[in-house]
TrEMBL record:
Domain Acyl-CoA oxidase/dehydrogenase middle: from-to ranges: 126-223
Keyword Nuclease: no
Domain Acyl-CoA dehydrogenase/oxidase C-terminal: 258-402
InterPro entries documented for this protein: Acyl-CoA_DH_CS, Acyl-CoA_Oxase/DH_mid-dom, Acyl-CoA_Oxase/DH_mid-dom_sf, AcylCo_DH-like_C, AcylCo_DH/oxidase_C, AcylCoA_DH/ox_N, AcylCoA_DH/ox_N_sf, AcylCoA_DH/oxidase_NM_dom_sf
Official protein name in the record: Acyl-CoA dehydrogenase family protein
Top-level taxon of the source organism: Bacteria
Keywords per UniProt: FAD, Flavoprotein, Oxidoreductase
Organism listed in the record: Streptomyces siderophoricus
Keyword Acetylation: no
Cofactor: FAD
Pfam families named in the record: Acyl-CoA_dh_1, Acyl-CoA_dh_M, Acyl-CoA_dh_N
Amino acid sequence: MAEFTMELNDEQKEVRDWIHGFAADVVRPAAAEWDEREETPWPVIQEAAKIGLYSLDFYAQQFFDPTGLGIPMTMEELFWGDAGIALSIVGTGLAAVGVLANGTEEQIGTWVPQMYGDADDVKVAAFCSSEPDAGSDVASMRTRAVYDEAKDEWVLNGTKTWATNGGIANVHVVVAVVDPELGSKGHASFIVPPNTPGLSQGQKFKKHGIRASHTAEVVLEDVRVPGHCLLGGKDKLDERLARAREKAKAGGERVKNAAMATFEASRPAVGAMAVGTARAAYEEALEYATTREQFGRPIIDNQGVAFQLADMRTQIDAARLLVWRASWMATTGKPFTSAEGSMSKLFASETAKKVTAQAIQILGGNGFTREYPVERMHRDAAIYTIFEGTSEIQRLVIARTLSGMPIR
Ligand SMILES: Cc1cc2nc3c(=O)[nH]c(=O)nc-3n(C[C@H](O)[C@H](O)[C@H](O)COP(=O)(O)OP(=O)(O)OC[C@H]3O[C@@H](n4cnc5c(N)ncnc54)[C@H](O)[C@@H]3O)c2cc1C
């Protein structure tokens, strides 16, 4: 009989404790400062690079962990430290995954190391898909990529928005339309190498939370990239487009909205970030509730407070289990027949918003001030129900998957 275990193995525990140490000793103490500065915490990224935590090697090791728990474990611990700083550290990984998933071996070998740089000269990368008129509705994307056969170059034009590390990245991965007739099936991803003329940063957003993470528009004006920057290569793209055109002609498969159908495998990682933030706020609230006294006894002595903490912890553990299940399914190739990836992201992100709000309530007036970290955690938690597909989009994906109906 197959062995069933939910225990991390010794190696995983060691890695988890190592990340936790960095989160507790380096990330958490820097959190308030970088939240106020609203700038990329380069010195913290550099510290992470020095110990090998910010590196392609470490990320790839966790990505290819055969149990699937490497990435969720990493995310939970780092985001427990601080969400804004953690996103500055893992944001590059999101772009790297774009290349790992679609790129040739040569493209992976050439570009992914340039995304990270090295400990003496750290770099970051950006993944640019969202546009002002194409957020949840990815199929409305307008950024165009046109092939200039004579020069074997692609020419990119358009405006991307909400790009994490957009404009400050060494390497940008840009999703663009190559065949407008095919909706999201007519999209392709391109590498924009360092210092390519025509790519510039537009507005940098001032945000509600995760303020240490840089979020900006990326403007592409006649950006010319060599043919080899098309991820996967031209032959593969031509084959894929031909298949999609055949299907569209036959009136077969509906051209799906990519934001709703894909990312099922990457969503648990965002769920794990949410679990990290929720756990951090819960721990603050538990500690406070056991030490703060009113009416001559600790406030946790009141069922009204103690039961809130019981619910918070129960929901956090349930969220983690959904995240672990989905991550395990993704790694072991189990089909997401019930949109389990979306379920995990939906539940964990909503839990983080709820739990961080409860933590503020338990800390009373102190919870409402910047003297205590829970108000920052609550502001940070709001992002999880928005990026990588909003909660409404997760519900849409789950409902469509369960019913097989084109629910709108
Ligand atoms: C801090 C931050 C970082 C980000 N980083 C990146 C990044 O690195 N790269 C990148 O490409 N993108 C990034 N994004 C973009 C993010 O993925 C989008 O914001 C998200 O997909 C939602 O798109 P939108 O903001 O245009 O909202 P909209 O799609 O306009 O949605 C607005 C509201 O309408 C609801 N809604 C829309 N359609 C439906 C529907 N069919 N049914 C029910 N409700 C619906 C939504 O749920 C939401 O509540 C980032 C965003 C933020 C805020």
